[in-house]
Fold this sequence. Notes:
Low-confidence stretches: none
Mean pLDDT: 70
Order of helices and strands: HHHHHHH
Radius of gyration: 21 Å
Number of helices: 7
Keywords: Membrane, Transmembrane, Transmembrane helix
Distance between the termini: 51 Å
Number of domains: 2
Strand content: under 5%
Largest sheet: none
Amino acid sequence: MENTAPSFRHFLRVDVLLLQLMGLSSFNTFFSNGEFHSSWSDGCFIIVGVSMILSVVSCQICTITFIGVDLNYAIEIFAAMSTTFLCAIKGMIWCAQQKKIHSILRQLSMQWENARARNFLTMENLKAAERSKSMQNIYIIAVFFVFSSYAIRPYILYFNYSLHRKMNDSFDYIRASVYPAVYPFVVESPQKFCALVTYQTLAGVFVLAERLENIIADDNSKHDEDIRQELQSIAKQHHELFL
Length: 243
């Protein structure tokens, strides 16, 4: 078993790579049992991400105040706002508990490698770990494809408008964005429009990731068919919301 059992890096290398792309470079050290040394960039990237989410929440609150007469629509926005705010709280917890999370991952890595060296890993352990890795891949693919399909749409709309623009035609930048809402600023140029869409995309990834994370957290009690149906439900809801 010692020669065939994969290392701990095999299961989490993609996750660590994504963390590094987000700016959390210090998390790579737990593979080598190194000490945690946080840099200013680690906290900076998290703060930027959380601030984007909180900004989306504030814009959703502004939207509710302007359409208060439409109770049903306000309830839908409030439900989305609650999920968004929960992501912001988790981001702040992540920022405050980086060292603790790094320590937990490092201990898991040490225990796995120790059991691997002593030939203590069973086939059940390996199957459970491989299943977890498969769910991580589903998580990453779902976040990328489901959300990017709506993040790309605003650019396509503007490109189509530019290509077939007629005299006296105007382009509604806000309605063409990822999240049409009431914003405390005016969007009247392509540069501001691209900046807004990019901003909304980064914030929306956190929200979508939260829903997919809940599916993965309950992986042990669900079958593949149940997980597939939940992923289809998320895609359908996003399709109905934006299209």
